[in-house]
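Appendix B. One record, verbatim.
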Amino acid sequence: MIAMTVVDPVSSAAVSIHGFMALRPYAAMVAVRHLQRTVLVGSQKGGVGKSSIVSAAAAMIAATGRKVLVVDADQQANLTESDLGADGDGGRSLAMALQYGTPLDPVRGVRSNLDLVAGGPQLAVVGPAIATQGGSKVHDNLAASLGSLILAERYDLVLIDSGHGDVSLLRVLLQIARYLIVPTKDDDASLHGVELIASLYLQARANGALIQLLGVVLFDANPRAKVRNQDVVSQVADLLRGSGAEPFEAFIRSDKAAAVDLRNEHLTPAELVEAARVDQQQRIRMLRSLDKKPRTRLWSRDPSGLAADYQCLTKEILRRIATAERNRASRAVVS
């Protein structure tokens, strides 16, 4: 097992992670299909943390030296514009690839080792295109374009953020991706969203998709509400019964101040920890000086707990991918 180093957002120290899969460099992947490490973070409910999880996990994995591609398949482009602060093309490249199979043109270097296929309003044409051409044609177009890009750029992992409103596009993404992660809040509407995408997932599997459900993750949870959180996890476990997946042990806590800073400043959680430290130092210096001029400041005081949540979730995602790959390898040997 190869060890992988991840920057600890709490202590800013490098920690060595063993026993979950250290993502092997692309050149070391043997007999693995080029879409094999494509992870869809999806839900039919908005505001449950899809883009937040994609940006945080992608940046943390890219920080280890692995090459990561994120795909923003949302017309709102929150991942592109708010989370990563990138200047995209309004979703044009992805829309053209879906409709015509043209090459994808990613925004390169949005972070070190991290590229982005931008989302945006031009994806609005995809739904009518699917209705006209059929889902299988659009699926084939995207599979060819995305597969070619992965092979050319040698990405180790692809993370896709799905929009919640376009069900036809979500169906296509479920056919493309190899893994599915479903985030949810603890309210009834969000849990109903889990049921809805679970139904689409089962339909995709019945239609021959290779996608595998990695699990459901609780987002925007109160870390002190242990009884409530456990009750929600139990409800999710009931929904997943028979799927072979379990709810993620890691969850993402509610931190409203950090959520505002992350999107206003276009930072990842690990970046916010450092920014908050610098902001605190500047605040102390200002108080000690005679300079009382107002300045822009962060709302976050200590976002390290939130960053640690994202790191724990990222580790667990990689462990589950590792387990799935080992199981497939074992079945291949047996057969």
